[in-house]
Amino acid sequence: MSAFISCMKQSQYFNFCQSVQAGKKLFSVLIDPEAFNSSLTQNLLNSIPEKTTHLFVGGSTDLHNKTQEVVINLKKHTDLPIFLFPGDYLQITGSADALLFLTLLSGRNAEYLIGQQVKAVGLIKKTNLEVISTGYILIDGGSDSSVARISKTKPISQKNIQQIVNTAIAGEYLGCKLIYLEAGSGAINPVSPDIISLVKKNISIPLIVGGGIKTQTQIQNAYNAGANMVVMGTFFEQKMQR
User: Fold this and answer.
1) Is the entire prediction scored with pTM above 0.90?
2) What are the residue ranges of helices labelled H in the chain?
3) CB 3.0-4.6 Å disulfide test: which of 22, 123, 217, 225 passes with 193?
4) Could you read off the pLDDT of 178-210 as tens digits, one per residue?
5) Domain locations in the chain?
6) What is the DSSP letter of 76?
């Protein structure tokens, strides 16, 4: 219950937690600004599942102006909450509804544990963005992910379940409001249900799962295992470019 009391301090997070508490399965499409074609915004929105509750905007390159353009364009066509999912501190715009303030808990590169976050402060303070502290855990999805390349960190093997669980618990102890299990963009193997289930049993904050999820069966498997939100991204990028 204490986790949900803290939700009341921030509207988007409060709404997120209320949905979780009500047993609602949340679903987000991740939009990479680099792959975004503004002239096809409505086509993209028409193609996303009806169950979509949020839109995440972010990628791996330093595209501040592009990120802002994407968010503003999406706002003209949808009332869905738009959360920033930045790969770099420059990808921050006050036009979004909230910012997932990511810390790469699975890595040991200080730049992505705290360096990028410190650099972001000046930009964030100029906005009214709702900041949601998010523990980001990169898990081996069987392919070389852009997150691993850019952050110069290694994902945690899916065989090392206890390390993943302990990392998630540590994130909650550190004050993270969300835990995000990520198999990486274009992952061959999504995060396994066994990992999702064990992490969920050991934390009291909402759990997001993404990377390599391409089918309805994989989505349902993640929900059944305990994911509160499932994120799909790469699958929709072709629709943005057509």
Assistant:
1) yes
2) 2-7, 11-21, 41-47, 64-77, 110, 116-124, 146-151, 161-173, 193-202, 216-225, 234-241
3) 225
4) 999 999 988 999 999 999 999 999 999 999 999
5) 2-241
6) H
Q: What digits encode the pLDDT tens for the residues 209-239? A: 999 999 999 999 999 999 999 999 855 555 4
Among residues 122, 70, 60, the alpha carbon closest in space to that of 95 is found at 70
- In one letter, which amino acid is 78? T
How would CATH label the architecture of 2-241?
Answer: Alpha-Beta Barrel (3.20)
Closest CA to 114 of 162, 59, 151: 151
Q: Quote the crossing angle between the two packed helices 216-225 and 193-202, to the nearest 10°.
A: 30
The tally of CA atoms less than 13 A away on the side-chain side of residue 1 is: 0
Please state, as a whole number, how many other Cβ atoms lie within 10 Å of the Cβ of residue 128. 7
